[in-house]
Write a structure and sequence with these properties.
The complex is a heterodimer of chains A (664) and B (257). Chain A is an alpha/beta fold. Helices cover 25% and strands 24% of the residues of chain A. The chains are: A alpha/beta (664), B alpha/beta (257).
Chain lengths: 664, 257
Amino acid sequence: MGESNTRLLQKKNTQENEKGVFMKVISKQDFSDFITTLINDESLDVHGVKAKDEKFVFGELESSDDLRLDYDTTILPPKKYFMPQYETLMKCSLKSPFDIKEEKPQKPLVLIGVHPYDIIAINQMDAYYCNDDVSKSYLDRRKNTILIGSDVLNIHDKAFFGSMNTGQVENGYDLFLTDLDDKVVIEIKSKKGKKLLNKAAMVREASDVEKQKVTAIRTAAQGKAKRGMKIEPKQWYSLLDQNYTSKVWKNQSDKCLACGTCTLVCPTCFCYDVNDEIDLKGNSKRVRTWDGCLLRQFSEVAGGEVFREDIKDRYRHRFFRKGKYLPDRLGFTACVGCGRCSTQCIPDIADPVKVMNLVFDNSETFIQDEDKQPKSISLDAIKIDEDKATSLHHPFPATITKIEDLTEREKLFEIELDSGEKLGHEPGQFVEVSVMGVGEAPISIASPPKRKRFDLVIRNVGEVTNKLHEMKKGDKVGIRGPFGTGFDVDQYKGRDLLFIAAGLGLPPLRSLIAHVLDKDNRKDYGKVTILHGCKEPCEVLFDSEIGKWQEIENVNVLRTVDRCPEGECWDGDIGLITKLIPKANFDQKNTFCMIIGPPVVYPFCIQILLDLSVPEERIIVSLERRMKCGVGKCGHCQINNLYVCKDGPVFNYKDIKDLPEAFE
Amino acid sequence: MKPKIAFFDFASCEGCQLQVANLEESVIDVAEVVDVVEFREVMTEQAESYDIAFIEGSITRPIDEKRLKAIRKKTKTLVALGTCAHLGGVQRLSNQWSAKENLKEVYPDAKEKNINKNEFFENPHHKAVDEVVKVDYVIPGCPIDRTEFIKVLVALIHGKKPPIPDYPVCVECKKKENICLFTIGKFCMGPIARAGCGAICPSHGSECEACRGYISHPHERAQIDVLEDCGLSADEIMHRKTMFTYKYVEKEKEESK
């Protein structure tokens, strides 16, 4: 690996580590002088734990006396340094919207006094933000920080890091402090840390007695901060897995204010929202702010539907994300026992110790299911490919090359990337379309991969789509993507295909239908049956194109409308799309069935297919949720443990049939 | 063409208009993007029509309703400015008594013949603007927040929906790392009150009284449970529910009828 760009972030990056722990000792006075030297160094920003009335916060240190290593816990965790409450992701002027400027990282930050459990939470955050799509803004902030840990000298009465095995930490920091009253033991963990400590006078090696004292402090803290949690952290997974329907969720959430506090103060809650802001002078900013799954609009889509309307569902989601969904995805239980939610929840229902114990007590049986455990990963083995780090929310400029009115509410936009490159999508994928200054909307790609330009069918339902409808040929939009998992076109080769498209489900299916019916691909697939339904004849999309499909050999098209008002022409069926399925006359044993439509159609269509003996694994659906980031970070589009923007939007029914949130 | 904007005041302390008049250095930038065509507090001119009319104050008497309806006809967009226009303001609490009782309380020495048949005293009963005409958008708060006013104005100019949050004050309070007032023996409506104020009151140690109204789906039962658990009596809870938000209580009463 050497000095190549692929390296471990702050982990095992010194040879010293491999030889053992390097412990130094410094007198209290010299330590105080060391902090003063750092504060006076104008090339550094020095933040640490300080008092705020009777509580503690991380903030800028103005003198070494501000630093309070005797703190119990801080109101907010140090995540605010790596993912600020309000973060400008990019700036531009609306006059030249694609002349995008980024905010450069500030001076190097020295962050002093982070407790072990909070360092572990930061390590988890590294895994989250640097997994797959690596967030450049996160990585920049993380690399720009010299992190100095500190042992827990006073234990907050709500802390339970002892129960979570997070009272000690092995990596993720540069220096680590243990305050022994008259002196401070400093462990050197990285080159960055060692270099910083060179600014201190009179550092000597720690004696065995001093090392033993450090161990004693850690063991005592770990032993004390337990609070009677009845299960081990690794048992959370099975306990939650077996108790999705526990009455505890409803009983507790009856008292929930849905105020979002538990998620905001949590060091392992990373979900965020992104919005575009405009100022009086016509400058625009794309801004990231903290969001949380307890807040109602978290799961709201542009059409106004809220996928977790019931507070119970939001309340449960938070615990499942920590104990089951993140373990499924990244291999760790995302609670470090800091006790912040336990302290700050006003009705006192957020405390994981209380809640997990309640679930345990109310669980009729509890089997530690070893087979169903997610693979656990060691946080020090997380590889971060820095070359892959990108500004995840920056769109690429593209030009609208054609606009076609389809219906009163829908228009078709043909778009070409200004780079001249092909989008390179698979059928079923989506893009995030930006109107600079207004925001982004996730839109399914409606054209096959072959063409250089791509089509988007856009219904005027929200702010962004509203603006898009006002645009003209030649106007610029921003494009991010393609995102998500599309249709597995190879898997369907040699098979018959049944397409069930209800309403706006046709455009995403059109990307696959057009691919399959392309003369170069047609031989790979058998009989194609297309069922299309919408409310009224005036809502029919791609009328002439459907006519052309019908003329192709071995293609059968059946169409229906819910109703046909007087005076309108209609030669297809009248009734719901479900009525077309039995008429389709397809070979149940050899057909893949694709369904896309509004949420209401899925349960009915799927049931009819199952009744016709179509195997579960041959039913393919595409789901819609609030896909905000497109890269599995912001958390809005989750269906239980799955991220629609990454794992979907196209799913095999067999894989999601048991997910309660999939077809609610 | 710059959009024409106008300000109108009804029953209020005019503090929200004052917030606009006091925009300080931003005033010049505002004047760059809009034409202020009517604003009694700073100018005497009047106009025939407006693109955006900002309405301050609660709507109290028949003459007010008539005037408001006339404004609605002349404007493309109508924005309720501040708590009085949004919810009816603190003065709405007087709706608990009859018009006659209120007049007697306020003008105990007035001769009845001076009050009767005087349109200025006719049947005072406070309403929010949306109870009289269609309101397109609301800028909540007592008083409004100047930064938020500018954000809304800019959004409207660019054809965007004004960015009024629909999450509770707790969110802003936590982001600011304030000490929760509940932990120091105070009480607060923050968990169900609409944010956007930057949690200004709790940030200065004062309890939130929900001057911006509630979020769109407040879990009010849970909030009342919390206040009860803190030892508040039914009267004290009602006091907290009615300071700025008597509109909701009136609605509840109507619905339970």
